Automatic annotation (TrEMBL):
Broad class of enzyme this protein falls into: ligase
Taxonomy, superkingdom: Bacteria
Pathway(s) it belongs to: Purine metabolism; IMP biosynthesis via de novo pathway; 5-amino-1-(5-phospho-D-ribosyl)imidazole-4-carboxamide from 5-amino-1-(5-phospho-D-ribosyl)imidazole-4-carboxylate: step 1/2
NCBIfam families, alphabetized: purC
Protein's UniProt name: Phosphoribosylaminoimidazole-succinocarboxamide synthase
Gene Ontology cellular-component annotations: cytosol
Family membership noted in the UniProt record: Belongs to the SAICAR synthetase family.
Domain SAICAR synthetase/ADE2 N-terminal: 6-235
Organism lineage string: Bacteria, Pseudomonadati, Pseudomonadota, Alphaproteobacteria, Rhodobacterales
EC identifiers of the protein: 6.3.2.6
Length: 253
């Protein structure tokens, strides 16, 4: 049997060559890492949940006209995506203070921000993904001013969509990270949402109890990560309501 071509392996996903030019197969691993991969574990079921949740969010974004890389889910762990040229920046949107913003600004976690704040970090593991300014981004040529305007606009649209979706199921979207890529339609470049949107890259707190339902459960040793992600999936209707643990998730189509 022919072996398929691996394009890239990251901490949580593997990219394989897709069936047609301009496509890739994105495989979601069960591996979890934090603190620049200083903390690692394999968490059974995480990849399956993130594949399904990212599909759910990206399909919703498509429905409201936010362009993204998702084409279709192939199986429990894989999805077909458009191949993009990833802009080497993490785009973070924050609605409430938490994590590195709380540390940097001395703000209590959970403090409401005056408006959503968009931040950019350089995607560079060796440097620990440092926060960068728009001046750095344009001066070093990672993106143009037009790209930056488009990235902020995409990020805020994702924020509005995700905040509403989560609010409807009793979850507060504290912050999240997305990645954005370039595609070309003939001579025209467009920016689209890429990578993944999942509890790995968001902070999600139960509105009533404040319980964390995201990767901070792993980062801060707060309990079982799969249970937390299963709860998010169950509330969103991605898993049937009688599923209590996701070591063997049952998908509903
Ligand atoms: P912070 O800057 O507070 O650590 O993270 C802000 C938000 O971006 C959080 O929701 C966090 O999960 C997400 N985030 C930041 N960096 C990364 C990263 O390298 N990988 C993932 N999966 N999420 C990240």
């Amino acid at each position: 049997m022919a072996r398929r071509k691996k394009i890239y392996e990251g901490k949580a996903k593997i990219m394989y060559e897709g069936p047609e030019p301009g496509t890739l197969v994105q495989y979601f691993k069960d591996d979890a890492t934090a603190f620049n991969a200083e903390k690692r574990a394999t968490i059974e079921g995480k990849g399956v949940l993130n594949n399904r949740l990212s599909e759910f969010f990206m399909k919703g974004l498509t429905q409201i006209g936010v362009p993204n890389h998702f084409i279709k889910r192939i199986n429990m762990r894989e999805q077909l995506i458009r191949s993009v040229e990833i802009i080497p920046l993490e785009v973070i949107v924050r609605n409430f203070a938490a994590g590195s913003l709380s540390t940097r600004m001395g703000l209590a976690e959970g403090t409401a921000l005056p408006r959503p704040i968009v931040e950019f970090c350089l995607k560079d593991d060796k440097l620990g993904d440092p926060l960068v300014s728009e001046e750095h981004i344009t001066a070093f040529g990672w993106a143009t001013q037009q790209d930056l305007d488009d990235m902020v606009s995409l990020a805020l649209r994702v924020n509005d969509f995700m905040s509403g979706l989560m609010l409807a199921v009793g979850i507060k979207l504290v912050d999240f990270k997305i990645e954005i890529g370039r595609i070309w339609d003939n001579d025209f470049q467009r920016l689209i949402v890429a990578d993944e949107i999942s509890p790995d890259s968001c902070r999600l707190w139960d509105i009533e109890t404040g319980q964390k339902l995201d990767k901070d459960v792993f980062r801060r040793d707060l309990g079982n990560l799969t249970d937390a992600y299963t709860e998010v999936a169950r509330r969103l209707g991605v898993l049937p309501s009688n599923v209590t643990h996701a070591t063997k998730p049952t998908l509903i189509n």
